[in-house]
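To whoever picks this up:

The parser on our side crashed when reading a file containing two proteins. I've narrowed it down to the boundary between the first structure block and the second sequence. Both blocks are reproduced below exactly, byte for byte. First block:
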Amino acid sequence: MSTITTAPTPTTTSAAAATSATTPQSLILSSTDFMQILLAEFQNQDPTAPTDPTQFASQLVEFANLGQLQNIDQAVQPTNSTDLMQAASAFLGREVVAPGDQIGVLNNQASTIAFTVPSTDTYTALVYNAAGQQVANVSLGQQTAATLQSFTWQPGSSPDGQYSVQIVNSAGAPVAGLVEQGVVQSVALSSGAVELNLGNLSVAGSQVTSVSSPQTN
């Protein structure tokens, strides 16, 4: 696994996170193969019942579409892992958002959970360690429906690591649709996929829904 650990603040944003194709080239139908099949069909048609010319026209349109899709596929795929890592490095020092209920704690600093409550009520954040044991119960007070809120845990003496969070209402019902939010500390390439480290929290680059400059206090 190759890793970039420096964290400069780039001036541009890139959310490219592609995975390498695994289909053998010998099993992919090329434009040449398609044309050969079309010609063979034309040459071997029954002269007493020739193929409707509109069918050939339709197949030619499919042939043109095939070529366009192959060109797009080649354009969006990085040529090698170095190119992919260079693209992924644009995440460094940026704040990203991805679906999930996990937080990472590193050097007594925790990443953030963002959420929107379905109804106005009093809410509580429950924090669990990797063993599933509850380690914190934090009152969030009254939250207004349909407004974006965030929760950043103060871990105190809790060790570095990864934790999970539940946001529950006064009846104990959990809020759905939590998202993970944090600043990218490093990026890595694993099995052809980009992984972003938010500080003991790994997020797949393909899951990122938002990239922005981190807010300063």
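<<boundary where parser fails>>
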Amino acid sequence: MKMAARQVRTTADDLITIRSACAEDAEALVRIEAEPADDGDWSFSKDPSTPWDQRLHKKRHWISWHAEQAGGLFLVAEMDGEIVGWICCSQGQDRWHAHRGTLTIVFVVKERRHRGIGSSLTGELLGWADEGAVLKSIGLKVVSLNEPAIRLYRRYGFTVEGTLRRSVRLDEERYADEILMSRHCPGEG
């Protein structure tokens, strides 16, 4: 699905443009993902050993795949002409799950965090889901150590559905849990 571009004011009073991702965004997204993530144990960087052209092809495919789904959406946030964040929601692929979306990522570049960009992206995506007739609920998994993300999701009405114990391997010795969260679209109880 595609969504028209909208200008949004963040909680830090920054003016950002939120729009559907397009194939031309792939290079910037791959470049941003390749930057080292120095955010602690809960941050995941992409494998730098994967060749650039493969990462670029995969990102372009991911963007077009979301655009083709009635219940899928890939949004980017731009500030001063640069992509500063993105969010993705994928629709269930079989008849038993086509009513349910999965929030696969909310990402904001490190230099622009804590300014309301992730919250603005989340609000736009959930507003789109709430207004549409395709998705009845949205689920996600979040690493238990990522407390800022958990607070964001709770603020938008997500509730804990369960925990996957030790499902993320941090290193040879340490593991983290993943928390399953879900939010029903209005009128879906």
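After patching the parser it read the second block fine. The helical segments are 26-34, 52-68, 117-131, 147-155. The CA atoms of residues 37 and 45 lie 6 Å apart.
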